[in-house]
């Protein structure tokens, strides 16, 4: 609604900022000079002991020298009451005795009608409150007592009871002069389709008032006491006052608590909200008998940027979470998302608090998971990805889900995180190595050095320096990928299979595999943010990297693709032969047999052919430069090991 010129100026003139702020703070009398409108207090926006919050009442502005919060009376009400601009204006106008500008006649008529319905609803709330205290309400009181809701809590939540009577609220409101049309329009009574007499909607139920953001009663929720009732919970119908998909239970108190820093929690029902709020989690709301709607999501984000969805840990709860993810994806923005706190299986928040206390609930909230985590769970849980087709299906489903995200920056970050999770799923051993730097396993090269069997430490095999060449080849591979990120699409699987030899290489490899763009500078910035600039400086300072053709000629994409394929093939061939050697070396503790000798001979032959550019991989090795050194040294180490085995076998020749 547009405000007429001068309205806000008059409102600020009539409003004392000192009075507005004084409701929330305690003035420091030693620093303050009230006569001059110069007031100081501890800041209401951040925790502090000194009075650094300053109010200049004459100018109508406040400023905190600690957290730098600043503004006028309207801004202060907005921030402390967690309301929007127009609501803050209405609050201050009521206090200042100013009439809000009139709306057009139709809008005013509609507003008056809603006010009338809200007054009828408030009368109903008070009637049901009184019924809870009568003899008819004894069963309801017993139930509430069993649920841990004592009389003071019942009063705070205005909980009532609707007797099992067809004309209880009807008779009461008629006696107050309320027409049947208003009673039916408010949702308190039902008029039969045949035009007969209306009757009470809520009968034999515990009543929970549903209020809007301004605290007005707009509908009711009822919990049946009869276990055979058709519906355990019953909400009022859609009315001129109540829209289920645009309302939240406990909205106004939750908004105020969230404005004071509490996390916004979304529970499943009335009792969960009440239990959480009574346990100290005041910023808790619930949808009203339906799955969360798009309008409710937007309403939640107006209260807090990242609500926590508290769901039961059963199958139904997880299904609800997955549906909500699909609903939220097109709507999320930077700083506006959801997290999911999954309850222990078989427990809802009320049960958990009663059994283990608020601390257990706090732990569940702190462990809340981001949406990308649940998306990954949905697409991978209970599935086996043992074929290229199944992996491709997973990639397709994930791309489809992420494509619904409108914000390109968020979509890119989701892609990076999905790539990271995918890398860990399909490379579990390497992922484990990354979390335990330096750990070694038999027959494999790990960060921290090769893992040789104790019996071979003194042999020539242990002195071979081929590992150094492998590290250099890894560096060339990574440098090509960083310089030509577009090659990732073609060589992603081959790069995934490489067991990087150092922690820096593992980290750079992981960053590359999680990148989804095509810009080298952007990829470089990402790696620097994750690994640090020093790792890249060391990588590109290597002579082997600097003389690599794709690095010297960064504009030649075809050359880069050819060289990358060659380097990957060389590394795979060399590592394959090394694994044979390591496995054989581990068996030397016992007398080697002729089969073992033959395996070593074959490994030596493969390396010899690689060095000479023969065999199946000839095309990949004809331009081998630094590859000759690794082949020669590995072959020398193999020959020495073969001789050692032959000596143990008593001089028997190789087959």
UniProtKB/TrEMBL annotation:
Protein name: DNA primase
Domain comment as written in the entry: Contains an N-terminal zinc-binding domain, a central core domain that contains the primase activity, and a C-terminal DnaB-binding domain.
Family that this chain belongs to: Belongs to the DnaG primase family.
CDD domains associated with the record: TOPRIM_DnaG_primases (cd03364)
InterPro entries listed in its UniProt record: DNA_primase_core_N_sf, DNA_primase_DnaB-bd, DNA_primase_DnaG, DNA_primase_Znf_CHC2, DnaG_bac, DNAG_N, DnaG_primase, TOPRIM_DnaG_bac
Catalytically driven reaction(s): ssDNA + n NTP = ssDNA/pppN(pN)n-1 hybrid + (n-1) diphosphate
The organism's taxonomic lineage, starting at the top: Bacteria, Pseudomonadati, Pseudomonadota, Alphaproteobacteria, Rhodobacterales
Source superkingdom: Bacteria
Enzyme class: transferase
Oligomeric form and interacting partners: Monomer. Interacts with DnaB.
Ranges annotated as CHC2-type zinc finger: 43-67
Cofactor: Zn(2+)
The protein's Enzyme Commission number: 2.7.7.101
GO CC field: cytoplasm; DNA-directed RNA polymerase complex; primosome complex
Function, in words: RNA polymerase that catalyzes the synthesis of short RNA molecules used as primers for DNA polymerase during DNA replication.
Gene3D superfamilies: 3.40.1360.10, DNA primase, catalytic core, N-terminal domain, Zinc finger, CHC2-type domain
């Amino acid at each position: 609604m547009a405000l007429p010129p001068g309205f806000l100026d008059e409102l600020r003139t009539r409003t004392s900022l000192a009075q507005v702020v004084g409701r929330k703070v305690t003035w420091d009398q030693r620093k303050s000079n009230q006569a001059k409108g110069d007031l100081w207090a501890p800041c209401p926006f951040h925790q502090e002991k000194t009075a650094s919050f300053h109010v200049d009442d004459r100018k109508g502005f406040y400023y905190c020298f600690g957290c730098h919060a600043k503004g006028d009376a309207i801004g202060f009400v907005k921030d402390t009451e967690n309301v929007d601009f127009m609501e803050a204006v209405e609050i201050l106008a009521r206090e200042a005795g100013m009439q809000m500008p009139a709306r057009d006649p139709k809008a005013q008529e509609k507003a008056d009608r809603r006010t009338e319905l809200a007054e009828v609803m408030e009368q109903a709330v008070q009637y049901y409150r009184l019924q809870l205290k009568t003899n008819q309400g004894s069963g309801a009181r017993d139930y509430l007592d069993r649920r841990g809701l004592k009389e003071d809590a019942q009063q705070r939540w205005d909980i009532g009871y609707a007797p099992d009577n067809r004309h209880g609220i009807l008779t009461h409101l008629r006696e107050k002069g309320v027409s049947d049309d208003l009673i039916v329009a408010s949702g308190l009574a039902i008029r039969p389709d045949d035009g007969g007499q209306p009757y009470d909607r809520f009968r034999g139920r515990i009543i929970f008032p549903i209020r809007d953001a301004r605290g007005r009663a707009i509908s009711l929720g009822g919990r049946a006491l009869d276990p055979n009732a058709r519906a355990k919970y019953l909400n009022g119908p859609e009315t001129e006052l109540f829209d289920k998909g645009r309302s939240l239970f406990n909205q106004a108190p939750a908004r105020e608590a969230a404005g004071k820093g509490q996390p916004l929690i979304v529970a499943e029902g009335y009792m969960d909200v009440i239990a959480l709020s009574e346990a100290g989690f005041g910023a808790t709301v619930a949808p009203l008998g339906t799955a969360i709607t798009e309008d409710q999501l937007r309403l939640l984000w107006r209260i807090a940027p990242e609500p926590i969805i508290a769901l039961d840990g059963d199958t139904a709860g997880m299904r609800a979470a997955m549906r909500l993810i699909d609903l939220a994806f097109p709507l999320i923005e930077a700083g506006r998302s959801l997290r999911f706190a999954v309850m222990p299986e078989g427990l809802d928040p009320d049960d958990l608090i009663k059994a283990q206390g608020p601390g257990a609930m706090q732990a569940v909230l702190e462990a809340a998971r981001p949406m990308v985590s649940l998306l990954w769970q949905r697409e991978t849980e209970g599935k086996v990805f043992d074929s290229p087709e199944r992996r491709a299906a997973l990639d397709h489903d994930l791309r489809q889900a992420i494509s619904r995200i409108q914000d390109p920056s968020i979509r890119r970050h989701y892609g990076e995180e999905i790539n990271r999770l995918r890398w860990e799923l399909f490379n579990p051993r390497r992922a484990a190595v990354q979390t335990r730097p330096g750990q070694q396993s038999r027959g494999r090269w790990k960060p921290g050095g090769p893992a040789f069997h104790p019996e071979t430490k003194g042999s020539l095999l242990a002195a071979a320096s081929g590992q150094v060449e492998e590290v250099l080849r890894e560096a060339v591979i990574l440098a090509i990928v960083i310089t030509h990120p577009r090659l990732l699409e073609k060589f992603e699987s081959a790069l995934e299979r490489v067991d990087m030899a150092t922690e820096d290489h593992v980290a750079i490899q992981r960053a590359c595999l999680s990148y989804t763009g095509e810009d080298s500078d952007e990829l470089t910035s990402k790696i620097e943010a994750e690994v640090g600039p020093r790792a890249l400086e060391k990588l590109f300072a290597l002579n082997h990297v600097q003389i690599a053709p794709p690095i010297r000629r960064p504009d030649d994409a075809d050359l880069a693709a050819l060289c990358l394929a060659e380097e990957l093939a060389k590394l795979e061939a060399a590592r394959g032969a090394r694994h044979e050697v390591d496995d054989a070396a581990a068996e030397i503790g016992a007398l080697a047999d002729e089969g073992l000798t033959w395996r070593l001979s074959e490994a030596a032959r493969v390396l010899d052919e690689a060095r000479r550019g023969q065999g199946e991989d000839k095309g990949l090795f004809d331009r081998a430069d630094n590859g000759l050194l690794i082949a020669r040294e590995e072959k020398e180490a193999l020959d020495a090991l073969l001789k050692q085995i032959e000596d143990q076998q008593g001089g028997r020749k190789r087959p």
